[in-house]
Amino acid sequence: MSLDRTIRWRGLDPETLEQCNVVANGRDTRVRGAIITPDYGLFYRLKLDENGHLRTARLERTDGRILELFSDGAGNWSDDRAEPLPDLRGCIDIDIWPTPLTNSLPLWRCDWVVGQPQRFGMAWVDGDAMTVRRDVQIYTQLDGRHFRYQGAEGFERVLEVDDDGLVVSYPGLFERA
Prior knowledge:
- The chain has one helix at 104-109; strands at 2-12, 15-25, 29-36, 41-48, 54-61, 66-71, 77-79, 93-97, 117-126, 131-143, 146-150, 156-161, 167-170, 174-176.
- By secondary structure, it is mainly β.
- The two termini are 24 Å apart.
């Protein structure tokens, strides 16, 4: 994948504003984003390897709270003290609240067949609490621009993406600014 894009999203609930830059060059993908929420600002940086597997994630809030995560790309995770995070074993992707950018990670990485659901173990980061936990998510490609997202407790949305697999509309939560 080759990509050099800057994207902006508006969060709808809660109201947020995000600017994100994605640079992919075939060797790796680097993402840098900044989100303004009603309660804090959040900067994040992600590095993916040539296979689209997350290797490093750093989140830093304007109140000084920091969360750093490291992955070997094969589903083994550790924190900034090199302590293993066994609850995340098998997770390849990360999903950060509050950004729609991380919904693109499994979309970029996988081969898709319309109508065939794919299940993912995600390292789900709550930017409000600065915590991480395992989450199971299901994506199903509906057509060239739409994916059904199914999360915990029956949460479901149809995401619209652009030609680069970046979210255009996430009903009720985010829209491209």
